[in-house]
Every structure is written in C-alpha cells, then in structure tokens.
Design a protein that fits this description.
- Helices cover about 45% and strands about 15% of the residues.
- The protein has four helices and two strands, in the order H-H-E-H-E-H.
- The chain has a two-stranded parallel ribbon with strand order 1-2.
- About 5% of the residues are buried.
C-alpha cells in the first residue's frame, strides 16, 4: 500500500531541553517547519498559555498562512482527549 511521504514534528520531543546549542538550532528552524505545515494539532492544558513557545508556534503557524491557503487546519483539543486525537491524526497518514 503506497502512502504519500509525510512528517510529524513534536516540539516537546524534537527540541532538546538539555543542549543549549541544539535547542537554539531547533527554535531557529521552527518558522521553516511551520511554514511547510498544513496542519497543527494543539493538545491544550491549563499551562499551555503559560509557555511562551506554545504561543509563538501558534502565532507563527497562523501568520505564515494566508486566506488563500484553505488547506491549513488548526485543531485544538484538551489533553484529556489527547490520545484519541493523536490516534485520529495518525490515522490520516
């Protein structure tokens, strides 16, 4: 069964918290990754808006899209249904 090539980026996993050089490199690459992204899944919890990088990612995703790009999708779900959302998200691959 052939499926188109798609990539998934988990900021919580892909951005190193231990190595400052790797962390800076990943943060500087966020804009490029978000610009190429068609979908963004936000697993929201009460602390989500306290983390500045979460707000930055959301703003950057929305800013790099134009009204003419109707392919963009923003999905926001609370974390208590996160596992169900992730299963549905990955089933589209």
């Amino acid at each position: 069964l052939w499926r188109p090539r798609q990539a998934v980026f988990f900021d919580r996993i892909c951005i190193s918290e231990d190595n400052p050089r790797l962390k800076l490199s990943a943060i500087l690459s966020l804009a490029g990754m978000l610009k190429k992204s068609r979908e963004m899944l936000v697993l929201w919890d009460p602390s989500w808006s306290d983390r500045l990088w979460c707000l930055f990612e959301l703003a950057a995703f929305l800013k790099c899209k134009t009204a003419q790009q109707s392919q963009q999708v923003l999905i926001m779900r609370p974390t208590f249904i996160g596992s169900v959302s992730l299963a549905g998200f990955f089933s589209t691959f």
